[in-house]
Automatic annotation (TrEMBL):
Biological processes annotated in GO: phosphorelay signal transduction system
A Pfam short name: Response_reg
Organism the protein comes from: Desulfolutivibrio sulfodismutans
Keyword annotations from UniProtKB, A to Z: Phosphoprotein
Protein name per Swiss-Prot or TrEMBL: Response regulator
4-aspartylphosphate modified-residue sites: 55
Amino acid sequence: MHFLIVDDDEASRMVLMAHLKHYGICDICGNGALAVEAVAKSLNSGRPYDVIFMDIVMPGPDGHETLEKIHALEKQAGIAPENRAKAIMVTSMDDEDNTMTALFEDGVSAYLIKPVAKTELVTKLAALGIVEL
């Protein structure tokens, strides 16, 4: 499994990485621009990401804008929407409008509220068929 964690908060990145290290390889980015570059490199190398954890609120391109750019790269690479990386939005806000936008307009598979508990993370990944409980 190949994961990308995108968050401007280092502590949040480290928590997710610690939770995910037993399930696969984790790459991390501190902003949306770096995430777009990482996805482009992964697509060019033939090792696309399976799951992208995306913070919603970040300086520069936010999670919505970044995900839109990532989907454009996947489309350009000939990846059908049903085969693109699963996107999981991660937010410290209990903001239903932002979350619903991410789920419906951005094609997000799930969302998690920070701080992310390992049990909640694994339950979400299992529900998406990514890991087994």
